[in-house]
Amino acid sequence: MRLSRYFLPVLKETPSEAQIVSHRLMLRAGLIRQHAAGIYNWLPIGYRVLRKIEQIVREEQDRSGAIEILMPTVQTAEVWKESGRYDDYGKEMLRIVDRHDRDMLYGPTHEEVVTDIFRSMVKSYKDLPKNLYQIQWKFRDEVRPRFGVMRGREFLMKDAYSFDLDEASARRAYNRMFVAYLNTFARLGMKAIPMRAATGPIGGNLSHEFLILAETGESGVFVHKGMLEKTVPANVDFDGDLQPIVDDWTSLYAATDEMHEASKEAELGDALVSARGIEVGHIFYFGTKYSKPMGCKVVGPDGQDVDLHMGSYGIGVSRLVGAIIEASHDDAGIIWPESVAPFKVGLINIKPGDAATDAVADDLYAKLEAAGVEVLYDDRADERAGAKFATADLIGLPWQLVVGPKGVAAGVVELKNRRSGEKVEMSVEAALAKLTA
Amino acid sequence: MRLSRYFLPVLKETPSEAQIVSHRLMLRAGLIRQHAAGIYNWLPIGYRVLRKIEQIVREEQDRSGAIEILMPTVQTAEVWKESGRYDDYGKEMLRIVDRHDRDMLYGPTHEEVVTDIFRSMVKSYKDLPKNLYQIQWKFRDEVRPRFGVMRGREFLMKDAYSFDLDEASARRAYNRMFVAYLNTFARLGMKAIPMRAATGPIGGNLSHEFLILAETGESGVFVHKGMLEKTVPANVDFDGDLQPIVDDWTSLYAATDEMHEASKEAELGDALVSARGIEVGHIFYFGTKYSKPMGCKVVGPDGQDVDLHMGSYGIGVSRLVGAIIEASHDDAGIIWPESVAPFKVGLINIKPGDAATDAVADDLYAKLEAAGVEVLYDDRADERAGAKFATADLIGLPWQLVVGPKGVAAGVVELKNRRSGEKVEMSVEAALAKLTA
């Protein structure tokens, strides 16, 4: 993409309304623009990041055996009255009355809708287990939306719902999501730690939160230092027994400040690490909480009806954009992990209009594009080199490839790694080889 | 994907509420399930088709130079009051009051929101032209939603918005979308015909509808038979002059029953074809209708402020799922064009449990998956062969690859083309070669 044709509205000033670094950087780097309180427009590079995260989440859900569907954003109140949550949910639920005076709402979550699908379409234990997931926009009418996409009102979530015949099978479904989450966050370039969590309004008695560690995180966390060194298992067989992996990842102490136990921490001594984290995933097993009131049951092997055991599993997809920035930035701007970067390479022509420089830069652009490398080509004629470097650092692409007249005369270009800051001069061929490897 | 693990809730009976064939087939083949009037759940194969259409639409928008963003579904009423449409829009607009008693709405379209983005972020003529698009869910509170996804309330649209300095430049933007639409519908396997259209509530004085021809289409259309033979130009240069292409595609008579002129049709004589069509795209040039009241202007080359010339360009993405089925089905079910089929191949094991048959079918499944071919593997142990064939015809995958004990003993499998009905016995190797070619 040529920047001269793109839409990258970078702000020079830091917006005063932004209290946290990810919010400031998302506004400054032109990722988002506020439409109304807690409601954002996703601008081109922001939306590219969001879609990359979404795709990684999707692939790891698919790999675990979950099946993608899409439920509507606007729901009828009827199913919420059946589950008993319509009156409980309070003012966070955005309630809507349609032209025929029917009570509707903008879904804050989809337990009721998916249970309604399942009860009408699945009749036999032979069709179990199943895990249906979606990646869909939701709305929670927060009283004080803030921190940009970290606590917005309209937000994108992955939510999965498992249906099983009994608790043991439901526990296996829970374990599959637990491991899928480890894989997902690792692919996003993040260190995420599962912590035993309160179940809150979703209900149930087994629940874990996944928190990304970031110095600027919203929650205090207390973890055994061994948690920080665990590696995510490779090539997991999701048909196999995942309990050992889950046991391993829950064997050491890890708790948010809401759930922590001072007595246990005292025992840990030097092994205790106190840090900060951002919640990016939450998984629940809640048994028959929804299936029983909503009549979601199947005929079991013995011919008797069985209420299904359910769990639900969320990942905050739009929140992750902010969370990744909180965990990965410096004073100059964002530092994207390569897996979610809006482009892999920022190609900077420091003197557009200079024929020799243009020839090298245009050729590099064409060859990188032809090789399938995502490049943002800063070909703007009316910006100084310094402004181009500042923009490149701010938007945080993993690699900056700098082409200028002096280097071109000497037969070299400069390749900068955004994360390490390391700059290396090399031939055009060497730069191409490195970026297309 | 193994069907035994998938979620494909096929209905045996034709649902009585469905009046048109696409709605019937989408319910029967398990593509959608109604949640509330005009609001649908997208089940796994339906959602796969929707996403494939979305991706083709996206690629053709990108190729034409449009830039993807995402605007929120929930909008503030303020921008609609600025444009003057808030009171005009009537009951089709789903109005919402949030917890702080602010007037909000679920966007039926996004002219106001995108104009608000543009006016705040683009200040100079040097940043023009621009075309920003999104693929986003919208809501129109239809008084009588019907025909399934063809006239639903919550629906997915691609909507693009162009911004230009003057009418001539805006006309070029219009032409780029015109040609992008020809490419898009051709890639979807459809014959789409542009027709001069009324501009309605969007406003403006230049507009075309694109209609897919289908015997069961909602609108009568009258076209010069030459329109049916036109081919879509290949490898268009979107930086070049597209006027000749647009002129060619608008040179012959084509009109919907709403706009047709009997006198012109009489002149055509035998060249007139009367058919039926389904509207799947609509493009508008409307000049300064929104930019002027909303103050969307830039500094022009002479230092004076200029109100921007705008157009908007829609494709009904979810509607296309129904429209393609209307145009491509038979008595047995759907016939997907390969570009949007949920899977390319239905692999049918007609005797699961028979060791030799399982070995061949499992091996074919593994090899097709490894080659990146999308396969739905009907490995169900409890269904008769007849039911499997009926399901395969109903869901309409382009190829059915049938593996049974008799064929396996003779060293052959059967490959059926869903569209032509042609069945050919061939070796496993030949079938693999054909399907991975």
TrEMBL record, chains A, B:
PROSITE patterns attached to this UniProt entry: AA_TRNA_LIGASE_II (PS50862)
Annotated localization: Cytoplasm
GO terms, molecular function: ATP binding; proline-tRNA ligase activity
InterPro entries xrefs: aa-tRNA-synt_IIb, aa-tRNA-synth_II, aa-tRNA-synth_II/BPL/LPL, Anticodon-bd, Anticodon-bd_dom_sf, Pro-tRNA-ligase_IIa, Pro-tRNA-synth_IIa_bac-type, Pro-tRNA_synthetase
Predominant place of localization: cytoplasm
UniProt family annotation: Belongs to the class-II aminoacyl-tRNA synthetase family. ProS type 2 subfamily.
Domain Aminoacyl-transfer RNA synthetases class-II family profile: start-end pairs: 38-337
Cellular component GO terms, alphabetical: cytosol
Name the record gives this protein: Proline--tRNA ligase
Pfam families with a match to the protein in the record: HGTP_anticodon, tRNA-synt_2b
Alphabetical UniProt keywords: Aminoacyl-tRNA synthetase, ATP-binding, Cytoplasm, Ligase, Nucleotide-binding, Protein biosynthesis
Database matches in Gene3D superfamilies: Anticodon-binding domain, Bira Bifunctional Protein, Domain 2
Keyword Ligase: yes
Domain of life of the native organism: Bacteria
Catalytic activity: tRNA(Pro) + L-proline + ATP = L-prolyl-tRNA(Pro) + AMP + diphosphate
N-terminal signal peptide: none
Example GO BP: prolyl-tRNA aminoacylation
EC number of this enzyme: 6.1.1.15
Quaternary structure and partners: Homodimer.
Function: Catalyzes the attachment of proline to tRNA(Pro) in a two-step reaction: proline is first activated by ATP to form Pro-AMP and then transferred to the acceptor end of tRNA(Pro).
